[in-house]
Amino acid sequence: MSSENFMPWIDAAAGLERIRGNKKLYTRLLKSYLGTINIDKIGALLEANDIPGAAVEAHTLKGVSANLSVDLVYKCSLALELSLKAGNRADEEFAALKKAVDETIPVINNIVTLWQEG
Q: Using CA atoms in the order 84, 87, 92, 95, what is the torsion angle rounded to 10 degrees?
């Protein structure tokens, strides 16, 4: 596995391509991304039955994940957003997104650590 292939979680090569290969910038963006992931907010909105609000949050997470090529979170955010926009409660999609976030965070931390040391 190359240091730029963290599949299926993250396609760092694609993320780096978007920013012309600047690993320092990509590392900073990943660290910032960790600070913006707020799965609990989406869960609270769903619990409050604020489906439009949860859809907006899922959409935002989807966009940021796509830009950084955090593929697993992107796919789950997309599924949640589409389900919410269709008027579904989307409990299964939210559970999948939460699991994806939980699986992705350690991978991102490893990338950040690896590239800060390298």
A: 30
For residue 20 the two structure tokens come to 């012309």
Structure-token pair, residue 68: 């950084």
What is the Cα–Cα distance from 75 to 62, expressed in whole angstroms?
8
Tokens of 8: 């299926």
How many CB atoms are closer than 10 A to CB 118?
8
- Cβ–Cβ under 8 Å, residues 92 and 38: no
Which helix (DSSP H) or strand (DSSP E) does residue 46 occupy?
Answer: helix 39-47
90 phi-psi bin (left φ>0, alpha ψ -120 to 50, beta other): left
User: pLDDT per residue over 53-109, tens digit each?
Assistant: 999 999 999 999 999 999 999 999 999 999 999 998 899 999 999 999 999 999 999
- Give 37's contacts (C-beta < 8 A, 6+ positions apart): 61, 73, 101, 105
Query: Which of helix, strand or coil describes residue 1?
Result: coil
